[in-house]
Write a structure and sequence with these properties.
This protein has about 120 residues and is mostly helical. Helix content is about 60%, strand content about 0%.
Amino acid sequence: MSQYAHQSRPAYPSEQPFSGGGQFYRGAGTPADSLAGKKHMQLSLAFGFLSFWIPIVFVPLALIQAGRAERLDEPSTAGKILAWTAVGYWILSAIWGFILYAFITSQLPMLLDSVPPVYSPPV
């Protein structure tokens, strides 16, 4: 009870007895759940970065780990954003590679005709 009980104001939280009730940061069940959620969040972030180099392996891993982290009330938006950005990067790279390949193959006959032969057999 507050020493100011004669005043008509609600008691401050510091004046009330502790009533934690096992609640942790953002409602996670136990400290082990919180640590597991952080582990999945960090793995999602790491796999998100690695998905720029080997997307077929690391994009699904990043998204799976992000889902596990969010089930344990741990935000993992960065890992998901990196994974989907890597997918977009690889799609744009494939389109750019196809356009470059089409341009080079369409110009190749003209290039080969304009180059004089380096060696011609003797007549």
